[in-house]
Design goal:
Elements (H helix, E strand, L loop, with lengths): L1 H15 L3 H4 L2 H7 E8 L5 E3 H7 L8 E13 L2 E11 L5 E14 L2 E11 L6
Parallel strand pairs: 1-6
Antiparallel strand pairs: 1-2, 3-4, 4-5, 5-6
């Protein structure tokens, strides 16, 4: 039961990061991304927390994201690995830019924060 609660919590936080309101809010992003955050993007580029806090809020049209197949693995009492698949949704509702995702989340006195994120291109997912 504990993993189900953890999965629900981390899924909710991860999905917040997909939402335009969150992506445009530097203060909220700073709460969700740990000071030592690092990302290896789908493109192969590497980003720090500072890069992300500078770039995301300036994106004029954040993509609509469909995410599925969430799974969590507790690595310690305060660290968890969240994996899932996502894709962008075009105006016709079609999925494109399919990606396998993994995030490492760390729990501290202020709550869960993402410390690492990676996106890897993949074949289209079956819905």
């Amino acid at each position: 039961m504990e993993n189900l609660s953890l999965l629900a919590t981390l899924r909710e936080l991860e999905c917040k990061l997909h939402q335009p309101e969150c992506r445009r809010d530097r203060e909220r992003l700073a709460q969700l991304l740990a000071p030592d955050f690092r990302e290896f993007g789908r493109s192969g580029a590497s980003y720090t927390r500072s890069d992300t806090l500078m770039l995301l809020p300036t994106d004029p049209e954040p993509p609509q994201v469909h995410a599925q197949d969430f799974a969590v693995q507790k690595l310690s009492d305060s660290i968890a690995l969240l994996t899932y698949r996502d894709a962008h949704v075009n105006l016709s509702g079609e999925l494109f830019r399919h990606t396998n995702r993994s995030s490492i989340w760390r729990l501290d006195s202020s709550g869960w924060q993402m410390v690492f994120h990676q996106g890897t291109p993949t074949d289209p997912m079956l819905s």
